[in-house]
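Deliverable D5.2: sample structural annotation.
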Amino acid sequence: MIKDIILNSIKRYSMLDKGSPVLLSVSGGPDSIAMMYLLKEISQALDLKLVVAHLNHQLRGQEADGDALFVVEQGKQLGIKVITDETDVKKLAEKNRLSIEEAGRKARYLFLEKTAIKENIKIIATGHTRDDLAETIIMRLLRGCGTIGLLGIPPVRSQNKLTIIRPLIELTRKDIMNYLDNHKIPYRVDTSNLDNRFLRNRIRNDLLPFLENDFNPKAREVLINLSKILDSETDFFEQTLQPIYKQMVEKRQRHYTLNISEFKAIHEALQRSILRRMIMDTKGNLLGITYNHIEDLMDLIFLKPSGRQIHLPDDITAVKEYNLILLSRGEYSKPVVEGGPVEIPGTTKFDIPRMEVITEILTTETIEISKLAKHAGKLSRTWNDPNHNGISEFEEFFDADRIGEIIFFRSRSKGDRFTPIGFEGSKKIKDILIDEKISPRFRETIPILTTANEIAWIVGYRISEYFKILETSKRVLRIKVRFFH
């Protein structure tokens, strides 16, 4: 029975638990109406609390208005609460330079998310079937995609702390139509589904029937089986990719960075997957991302000089800076160092950048200063959490009496000069950072420790000759800086 198939799908893919509230996305068409009736049938057994959501896209005039009234009426008959709203999808598409299909999808999911949150519901159910899965695989293949794109429509996925489920995913459109006809359940026909200006409609109405009639009558089943095989293989691949991704990709406050030298050392298959993952993390999805976009990123990494950038869909910018790729949403803007005074001894916290500064005074009673003096300037250490939880730590030691009790952090200023340890004369901080191959975009983000008159430390890089520990030093100022990215 068709109910058994749905119950098995719910159990197999762990779609929901007994007693779960579920928001049903219902357009009024055959698939969503069948889902509405079928979930109502099993709701008592699973103690489900159902709410229906319908969005009028305002694309088909009176026909669309009729769909909304029809869904409300069906909800009344089944005793299910129905929430409706409307959005001018055509205007949304023009404003954001999207296709009607993509604008409709964005508007629909935004409406579903808002409604679910308002109703305190964590699960959203859509009426996708096996036929939708086959159509999606072909559509993505024609547009250009990676292995993940060929997975089609997952039975369950997470989105902004909500769970999207497809309880009809093991049913065909033929199964749905037979169920509706046998139970004499009415439904609406969306005439736009016959409009072959839309790619999905051409695939549904022309391409798939052509493949079944002229090549393989089981073409849909072959595509779905391919998707299932790739699903398990991709899951294994993703588990392999995860530690590699964490090693070479770092999340900053406004962007993600990729270490190019580490990236070049891994297999090309991993490289492409890492780039797709970076895009996914930056913009939240891979919609609009094609093979050519990944190729453009590969060219930027392997062929273009430092300073070049490319633009990707949804206002994503990729910039090459020395040994890094920076991926951000919108034009990359330089964060600043607000900084401020540092408490000695004690702990001082800063918001921009997010850092914690711990200071303490050490004396001959607690350490052997002469040993520290022999290694002056070589004691700075960088520490990264082994779990890559976004924390970096730097530590340095200074002559406490020479540096004084009034110190503070600030950003680099134009013309700043400083005498690094081991130098006789001063050098521009800008030149020091260029020598260290720090990109122009990062130079303003590096905190500078200063006294009232002199720069003492470029955090993470160099300390001043004037404030280094000497064998004659009586007290040592230890400074530990922890950054939270």
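Annotation notes: Residues 252-329 form a domain with the Uridine Diphospho-n-acetylenolpyruvylglucosamine Reductase; domain 3 fold (CATH 3.30.465.60). The radius of gyration is 30 Å.
The annotation will be released with the project's public dataset once the embargo ends.
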